[in-house]
Amino acid sequence: MQTRSFSKAFRKIIARMWWVPFLFAAIIGPVVYTQNEIQGSGFVTTGRVLLAMPDGTMPEESVIMEHVFMLESAVRLNKAKVAVAELHPEVEFMIISINAECAKGTNIIKVTGTGTDEELVRELLRVQMHFYMATIEFLKKNPSPEVAALDLGKVTPQVQDWPGPAVAGNSNGVLSALLASLAGGLYGIVFMLLISSIWAFFRPAWLQPSLEEIMQAVDGLDPMTRTALLEVLEGGR
Questions:
Q1: 77 domain residue, yes or no
Q2: 124-177: per-residue pLDDT in tens?
Q3: Domain membership of residue 99 as a residue range
């Protein structure tokens, strides 16, 4: 009886929350599309930094990641934007992002700049890499325990390739948004099932059938049974 009651309440809540997956899809899709339009499209340029070791071995992965974080540092990016903006006062607004990554098993960090302006994105990435190299030189002359993770006693960063001319990006914002909407819908289904299960298990009194609804459901019972059932229900209130 209890299982049947839970199942009925669960189905009732599902019927009321059918719109949740569509809401998730409708929100996540446009958000991803907008993000792709702002950051993922436009022009792309790349540079490369080699982390050289004196004996030709590979730096530790943790050391490589420290240099990756430095190359895509938001603080240096903001400084680079200020420097570029001073050189181009006519530019009122620039949308540029920088990403650094190192393929597993290599010691070459690929630095990618993405932006809406073909010239500015290249110039800004060059400034960012100059800031990185200047910071490395400063830290070599002023060592401290805080920067020991960079292992500058052994690792020598070298710019292998400075950013070249930016090329048009080929990101498909529509496809990404559709896939994100699909994923959002699946998340919405999981969320709906989870909430419905919890709600059905701990459902409040207003979701439970009223005495009148129960009596209508057992309308076919004989008067004696109905009277006994009514006494039990009233006694449990």
A1: yes
A2: 999 999 999 998 888 888 877 767 778 887 888 999 999 988 887 655 566 667
A3: 42-170
